Amino acid sequence: MAIEQRVLVIDDDKINLKILGDILRDEINVMVATSGTQGIRKAIDYQTDLILLDVLMPDMDGFETMNQLSRNSKTSSIPVIFITALDDSRNEEKALLMGACDYIQKPLNASIVKARVRLHLQLVKQRKMLEELAHIDPLTSIANRRKYQDTMVDVWQSAVHKHGCLSLLIIDIDNFKHYNDCYGHATGDSVLKKVADVLSDKIDSLGLVARYGGEEFVALLPDISTEEAQEIAKWCQQSIEGLHLSYQHDNFNGDITVSIGGATVFPTPNCQPDIVFNEVDERLRDAKNSGKNKVLWVEKSTMNTAV
Ligand SMILES: Nc1nc2c(ncn2[C@@H]2O[C@H](COP(=O)(O)OP(=O)(O)OP(=O)(O)O)[C@@H](O)[C@H]2O)c(=O)[nH]1
């Protein structure tokens, strides 16, 4: 089902709001606000795709509203079309210099309003598609390292704010080079896809799973305690072995397995996610060096006590 796009019109003049609503409503979901303050609140709460903003408003004018929208990380990427009076080229220039994507002149011409709004909504759709593609691993279709890093920043900040915990797993396929040597890279690729599917099935509803690179995956589990996270890690390990992706190499004859490092921490503002990542990575290396196919946990993180 196509996601309906939302346009927010901010104008203190109720007649203008009605005119714009009537022009656009048959094609798009239109929301209205009668002041800059109300508009900013609605833009944050409803994450609108486009804003039509009147320049002249009492209390907070269009420029100040735009200023506040661009300073807020939740609204800064929403494109804004200014509504200016005819022959108001000074304000048009100012609006464009402030970062407005376009302007529409009053009195409103229905077909021009529709055409401009349609064009900018199309651009929003394309930008969102590109953003999504930039966050997806093309081989496995799960999130990529960049998405993991962006999400980690958000999850970390939210945990700091709520004094909550988060768990992190690094999952690495064992002896994958041998598998590739045995069956070739194309079959190796299909293993990566199957492993990604298993991880995604389990983790999508709990947090984020991403392909970090090569044969290494990460799972980011907000608000998941040590016990729960260890159970999830065990489940992933057993489910991947349960795929029975068998191979032979030298004296080895068996199935694909994974080694997993994990930790659960309470993030603090003066600590960076990289510290936890490195600690988990160290436990993963311990797992590799002590026989593989196991889950090892960071017992006591240097940044704080594990949950
Ligand atoms: N098929 C396939 N192989 C990949 C891909 N990315 C990395 N690899 C392979 O993954 C293998 C990783 O090898 P190593 O780093 O030695 O790790 P390993 O053989 O799994 O050994 P351990 O990690 O110690 O268990 C290499 O053979 C890489 O070529 C990929 O996208 N597709």
TrEMBL record:
<dbReference type="InterPro" id="IPR029787">
    <property type="entry name" value="Nucleotide_cyclase"/>
</dbReference>
<feature type="modified residue" description="4-aspartylphosphate">
    <location>
        <position position="54"/>
    </location>
</feature>
<protein>
    <recommendedName>
        <fullName>diguanylate cyclase</fullName>
        <ecNumber>2.7.7.65</ecNumber>
    </recommendedName>
</protein>
<dbReference type="Pfam" id="PF00990">
    <property type="entry name" value="GGDEF"/>
</dbReference>
<feature type="domain" description="Response regulatory">
    <location>
        <begin position="6"/>
        <end position="121"/>
    </location>
</feature>
<dbReference type="InterPro" id="IPR001789">
    <property type="entry name" value="Sig_transdc_resp-reg_receiver"/>
</dbReference>
<dbReference type="InterPro" id="IPR011006">
    <property type="entry name" value="CheY-like_superfamily"/>
</dbReference>
<keyword id="KW-0808">Transferase</keyword>
<dbReference type="Pfam" id="PF00072">
    <property type="entry name" value="Response_reg"/>
</dbReference>
<keyword id="KW-0597">Phosphoprotein</keyword>
<dbReference type="GO" id="GO:0052621">
    <property type="term" value="F:diguanylate cyclase activity"/>
</dbReference>
<dbReference type="InterPro" id="IPR043128">
    <property type="entry name" value="Rev_trsase/Diguanyl_cyclase"/>
</dbReference>
<feature type="domain" description="GGDEF">
    <location>
        <begin position="164"/>
        <end position="300"/>
    </location>
</feature>
<keyword id="KW-0548">Nucleotidyltransferase</keyword>
<dbReference type="InterPro" id="IPR050469">
    <property type="entry name" value="Diguanylate_Cyclase"/>
</dbReference>
<dbReference type="InterPro" id="IPR000160">
    <property type="entry name" value="GGDEF_dom"/>
</dbReference>
